[in-house]
């Protein structure tokens, strides 16, 4: 068989079952091979950023890599922003980039560019297959590399002739390295810190924000009085009624500082040392308070949940973790605001929902409003590259076809990768998207003042750069143009009726929630 | 003044008048400075690929750089594909990328990534300003670098603190190097080749596809019998009634080979040696026929039009160039096809139009149908990275506000950067977009067979990767959702009526031309 066919056989044997694709001529043999390997599901995306974001959503929920199929350097470039978010999330992704035939590269044809340089900015592993018969083994290693804890983007560059040439045979899967167990002495030293009686917090990230890690952390907090925090933008946070509640570190540095005031010890479990998202004049980049010592219980690639369980056994004995009690907001009424929209969502969020949250400023009240909803997963914008939410929801829905997916999306961010809706319609995915349409890049209204730009000199020209009205975006028309049923809500009652109806029906829906800007 | 203000003053003094922007927090001081430098026009784009493609369109028409303002590595990544096309077009662009404050970079905040690696893939010049007072001189050099013949992407990376710190003063413009004159001996040797009587062709590219180069080349061809060809995807081709006609080298290698059959000499004037766009099994990458000698009259950065004028003086004495006679296709009727759509466009194309052509397979008949239309500029997809057409039209309309812009756009390509329509609506740009909606990536239907994929094994799964129906894209709804009036044409008469009306009214319009697929 040819390299392309052997590749797909190798991937399905390694449990890579989905390929989010936006192919071109140099990938035609890979596309043709889909018919010879029906266990591989090709999912067409109309833009590469949708494909890579969907692979991120799939990987976060399946804990297994999806493949992405991209077209040369420019196709990879279009997919980079969401691969950047995936890199920050520690998501396993097999990123396949088709290239010109090996002998064609030196002619500098129009699409030739430096694929390796682009891939290097997001990948933990890169290889270019040189011969058809190398492809299967390279692919098996790529899958294992993608799964290397905590998970990473593995980029496999496949020249066209390497795919179309015969002489390849499927390779057997390569076992991936498990998460590294944390040494007893590290756990014991954290236990000593917790028992010191000094003010202490646990900061959870990575795998520690799933049920097992949270329960262990909850026990530790209950037994020792340590504060429980998780990173600002967790890749996947399990939360809701019956799970231990954890406070997310605030986006704004001064609010994060307030959360950590008075701490003498900060124990990191799968999280990085907290830093300010952006720099601001005369504000610290490092958010750890003075006099607070930082202890790494589990770093990147370590078994953070296992370390927390061990630590809980040392300091919390038979203590059970306190859990969030069920509670729902009262259904609000009247003209819609971001706060009321959050209450509607909290009142109706279905059990086992997957929430893709890119609501930005309009999402300010969501955490509170949904805290006591039935258990659900919350996926956030890990790398700050907007345009993640709708692709992420798409991939999550493919990974978990029996779970309802809710995508909470800011208007400005939605416009980056809107064609995810088309893929949702084509694949019949059960995704309910709520667009918070406040007619602006509201976060920049806030940031303009925070970075110290003179509000007297920043006038109409500056503010027009945040203004998404003139003309208004009509997300109902945009969704319908891609085959997704849609409606507009201007009151809390309208949102509740439309959100409830969308959740009760299969397939994708979109609701444009018209809200005033928070800033 | 601060670095940002000094930057904008320096740019407007260097005749950079437009900044296509998609800013974020790290660019807030640059945005704030817009109000202190009102001569700089900020144009908001909802996606970075729109901003970079618009700068390409602006630069091709203005022969002067626009600035682009992007947000860190991920923002640059989103803009790379159209910067790739601009690189291939030799378009001057000042690419400004905001970065974290200098002291913040080492904290590896979520948006941190390798900006330099990304910029390197498309830029001819890169610099990171280290201090506020360096910004103006760096910017002046960047503008000169962008204008270095034939034109290139110059990337200036500006850390946030370098923009917000005081102590900068505007810099005076730096003179850019002009195109290199071609040495007499090179011109004389080309003249000898032309006079040899052996079969010869001129292949024009770069600056040689504008009126002066074409007229000189037309004289040479008339006097010597040399064949007149231009590169497959010229950045800007002046054509139509009253201009010398030039045949574009075909996209398909075998057709290009046929155009060059029997040649003994190929003289390159601003064009590269012709190579196949993609590699195909058992097809040559190099398209120059055996026994044909290649002569470089003018390479990258040389004054190709000047060299042609000199050459014409040597071989064509007082010969006048033969020019295209005016002619328009008969207005067709009945159900619309791509061929009839081309005839409608040829019948109605207004004088002095700028055509942004990303019609791909549906555009097969456009060259013939518009050959005798009133004089116009034709802009093509130079780098093969689809999603160029609508941003390019946007920037061209800003560069040339008194000229009608016509954007001929394939359905699949349109979906990459569709939000260009919103910027057209906001800025009131006179752009008439015709979407050729054939419900497929039709070029891939053709390429699948051409790369030798077995049509028996490539079945439903493969073909679904080219299928843009299920669900159908409704471009009328999509355009209306971004504030652009739109209609749908299913017959030639409907297209003619709507196209004529759109051209007669100011502001943007979109027509969805429903056509069967050519392949």
Structure, described:
2 copies of one chain form a homodimer. Chain A has 3 domains: 3-164, 3-Layer(aba) Sandwich (Rossmann fold); 184-316, TPP-binding domain (Rossmann fold); 338-514, Thiamin diphosphate (ThDP)-binding fold, Pyr/PP domains (Rossmann fold, 3-Layer(aba) Sandwich), CATH 3.40.50.970. The N and C termini of chain A lie far apart (59 Å). The mean pLDDT of chain A is 96. Chain A has helices spanning 3-13, 28-33, 48-62, 72-89, 115-120, 135-146, 160-164, 184-195, 211-224, 253-260, 304-316, 338-348, 366-370, 389-399, 411-414, 420-427, 442-450, 460-464, 475-480, 492-504; strands at residues 18-21, 41-44, 66-71, 93-99, 125-128, 153-159, 200-204, 227-230, 237-239, 247-248, 265-269, 293-298, 354-358, 376-380, 405-410, 431-437, 486-489, 509-514. With 519 residues, the first copy, chain A, is of the alpha/beta class. Chain A is globular. Chain A is built from 20 helices and 18 strands. In chain A, helix 1 (3-13) runs parallel beside helix 6, helix 8 packs across helix 11 and helix 9 packs parallel to helix 11 (304-316). In chain A, 37% of the residues lie in helices and 17% in strands. Chains A, B: Residues 1-106 form the Thiamine pyrophosphate enzyme N-terminal TPP-binding domain. Chains A, B: Belongs to the TPP enzyme family. Chains A, B: Residues 363-512 form the Thiamine pyrophosphate enzyme TPP-binding domain. Chains A, B: Keywords: Thiamine pyrophosphate. Chains A, B: InterPro entries: THDP-binding, Thiamin_PyroP_enz_TPP-bd_dom, TPP_enz, TPP_enzyme_TPP-bd.
């Amino acid at each position: 068989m040819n390299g392309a066919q052997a590749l797909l056989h190798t991937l399905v044997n390694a449990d890579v079952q989905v390929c989010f694709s936006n192919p071109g001529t140099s990938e035609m043999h890979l596309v043709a091979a889909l018919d010879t390997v029906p266990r591989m599901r090709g999912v067409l995306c109309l833009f590469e950023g949708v494909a890579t974001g969907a692979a991120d959503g799939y990987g976060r929920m399946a804990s297994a890599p999806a493949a992405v199929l991209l077209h040369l350097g420019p196709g990879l470039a279009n997919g980079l922003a969401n691969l950047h978010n995936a890199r920050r999330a520690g998501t396993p992704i097999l990123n396949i980039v088709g290239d010109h035939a090996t002998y064609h590269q030196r002619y500098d044809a129009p699409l030739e560019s430096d694929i390796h340089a682009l891939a290097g900015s997001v990948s933990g592993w890169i290889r270019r297959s040189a011969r058809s018969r190398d492809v299967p083994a390279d692919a098996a290693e790529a899958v294992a590399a993608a799964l290397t804890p905590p998970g990473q983007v593995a980029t496999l560059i496949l020249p066209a002739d390497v795919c179309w040439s015969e002489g390849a045979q499927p390779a057997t899967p390569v076992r991936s390295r498990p998460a590294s167990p944390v040494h007893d002495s590290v756990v014991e030293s954290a236990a000593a810190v917790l028992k010191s009686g000094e003010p202490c917090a646990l900061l959870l990230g990575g795998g520690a924000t799933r049920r097992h890690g949270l329960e262990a952390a909850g026990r530790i907090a209950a037994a020792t009085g340590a504060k429980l925090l998780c990173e600002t933008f967790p890749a996947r946070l399990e939360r809701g009624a019956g799970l231990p509640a954890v406070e997310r570190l605030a986006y704004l540095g001064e609010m994060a500082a307030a959360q950590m005031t008075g701490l003498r010890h900060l124990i990191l479990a799968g999280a990085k040392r907290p830093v300010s998202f952006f720099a601001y004049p005369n504000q610290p980049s490092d958010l750890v308070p003075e006099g607070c010592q930082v202890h790494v219980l589990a770093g990147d690639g370590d078994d953070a949940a296992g370390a927390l369980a061990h630590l809980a056994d040392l300091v919390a004995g038979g203590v059970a973790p306190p859990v969030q009690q069920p509670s729902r907001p009262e259904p609000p009424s009247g003209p819609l605001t971001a706060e009321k929209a959050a209450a509607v969502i909290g009142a109706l969020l279905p059990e086992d929902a997957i929430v893709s949250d890119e609501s930005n400023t309009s999402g300010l009240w969501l955490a509170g409003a949904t805290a006591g909803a039935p258990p659900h997963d919350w996926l956030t914008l890990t790398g700050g590259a907007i345009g993640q939410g709708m692709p992420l929801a798409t991939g999550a829905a493919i990974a978990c076809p029996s779970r309802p997916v809710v995508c909470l999306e800011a208007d400005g961010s939605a416009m980056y990768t809107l064609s995810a809706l088309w893929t949702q319609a084509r694949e019949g995915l059960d995704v309910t998207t709520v667009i918070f349409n406040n007619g602006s890049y509201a976060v920049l209204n806030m940031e303009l003042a925070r970075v110290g730009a003179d509000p007297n000199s920043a006038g109409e020209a500056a503010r027009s750069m945040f203004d998404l009205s003139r003309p208004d975006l009509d997300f109902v028309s945009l969704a319908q143009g891609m085959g997704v049923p849609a409606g507009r809500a201007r009151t809390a009652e309208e949102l509740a009726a439309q959100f409830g109806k969308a959740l009760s029906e299969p397939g994708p829906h979109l609701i444009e929630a018209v809200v005033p800007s928070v800033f």
